[in-house]
């Protein structure tokens, strides 16, 4: 790798890591906003969609219309998967605990490995398969232990669907790395609004809630999506998928610190198993892909 390649790689790592930190604010927003779930999804989708499209126009400038006219199946598939993941993700946080939703979401990088092999024949390493098995054991324990005592089974199932759709989205973006995906992210946000607009209760939205929803849509979702799309182009898809897992420990951490949302014992045990598998795998990947030292010729 040249010095410029290393620079672009470091920028990609920074962008994706920052996107994960922004996404980790979702729990705080969901606990702070008192409006109903469907109203949050609809308004947040509108704000996010408009914000991402503005970013897209700022990036592509005169090419914007040409890119939009060239939209094909991969972009539409990414939009559908992104929209589904947003709906299921916020639903999981609302109906389960924040910690439970995030721990289940932590399996997304490993689900990505399986889906990528099935659809684009990309083989996962042995360490990925081992980490996947350990993580699935942790999730299985967390989901099945004391089902009636913590978050609802519906919330946990939504979290599983969220992880699957995120894995599918990562696979699509990996296979079509040269396709501009910002319109897909905007489309996913607008899809959230289209699906939920029929259940909106605007009378439940206070001025404070509306302000938080705007911040939720612009900072947490739109900026996070834009940073991820830009950063993922500069690094491998595996690295991008693993870096987004930084959202997992930080989301419940913020709600524990600022909202006193204490995780259940089953979540702590299952979550510890998943995080050991996750960060152990990240450590192995970093050691295995460490860039060589450049020397003068």
Task: Kindly describe this structure.
This protein is mostly helical and about 300 residues long. It has one domain (about 5-290). It is built from 14 helices and no strands. The chain has helices at about 5-25, 25-30, 35-60, 65-70, 75-95, 100-105, 110-120, 125-145, 155-175, 180-195, 205-230, 235-245, 245-260, 265-290. It is globular and about 50 Å long. The protein starts with a helix and ends in a 9-residue tail after the last helix. The model is unreliable at about 290-295 (pLDDT under 50).
Task: Tag the structure with descriptive keywords.
297 residues, mainly alpha, 77% helix, disordered C terminus
| Strand coverage percent | under 5%
Distance between the termini: 14 Å
User: Main beta sheet: strand number and arrangement?
Assistant: none
Percentage of helical residues? over 70%
Low-confidence stretches: 291-297
CA-based shape: globular
Q: Which secondary-structure class do the elements indicate?
A: mainly alpha
CA radius of gyration? 19 Å
* Number of strand segments: 0
Order of helices and strands: HHHHHHHHHHHHHH
Summarize the structure.
The protein is an all-alpha fold and 297 residues long. It has one domain. 77% of the residues lie in helices and 0% in strands.
How are the elements arranged and paired?
Elements: H1 3-23, H2 26-32, H3 37-60, H4 64-69, H5 73-95, H6 98-105, H7 108-120, H8 126-144, H9 153-175, H10 182-196, H11 207-232, H12 237-243, H13 247-259, H14 265-288
Helix pairs in contact: 1-11, 2-13, 3-10, 3-11, 5-6, 5-9, 5-10, 6-9, 6-13, 6-14, 7-8, 7-9, 8-14
């Amino acid at each position: 790798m040249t010095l410029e390649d290393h620079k672009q790689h470091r920028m990609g790592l920074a962008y994706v890591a920052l996107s994960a930190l922004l996404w980790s604010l979702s729990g705080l927003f969901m606990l702070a906003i008192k409006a109903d779930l469907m109203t949050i999804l609809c308004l947040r989708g509108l704000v996010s969609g408009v914000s991402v499209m503005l970013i897209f126009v700022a990036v592509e400038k005169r090419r914007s219309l040409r890119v939009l006219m060239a939209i094909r199946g991969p972009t539409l598939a990414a939009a559908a998967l992104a929209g589904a993941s947003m709906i299921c993700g916020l639903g999981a946080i609302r109906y389960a605990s924040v910690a439970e939703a995030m721990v289940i979401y932590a399996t997304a990088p490993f689900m990505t490995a399986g889906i990528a092999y099935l659809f684009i024949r990309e083989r996962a390493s042995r360490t990925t398969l081992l980490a996947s098995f350990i993580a699935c054991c942790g999730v299985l324990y967390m989901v099945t232990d004391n089902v009636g005592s913590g978050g609802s089974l519906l919330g946990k199932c939504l979290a599983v669907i969220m992880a699957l759709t995120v894995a599918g989205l990562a696979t699509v973006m990996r296979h079509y790395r040269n396709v501009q995906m910002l319109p897909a992210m905007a489309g996913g946000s607008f899809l959230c609004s289209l699906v939920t607009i029929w259940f909106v209760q605007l009378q439940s939205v206070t001025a404070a809630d509306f302000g938080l929803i705007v911040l939720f849509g612009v900072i947490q979702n739109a900026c996070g999506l834009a940073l991820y799309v830009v950063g993922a182009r500069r690094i491998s898809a595996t690295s991008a998928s693993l870096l987004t897992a930084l959202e997992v420990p930080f989301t419940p951490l913020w709600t524990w610190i600022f909202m006193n949302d204490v995780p259940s014992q089953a979540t702590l045990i299952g979550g510890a198993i998943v995080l050991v598998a996750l960060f152990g795998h990240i450590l192995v990947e970093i050691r295995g892909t460490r860039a060589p030292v450049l020397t003068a010729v």
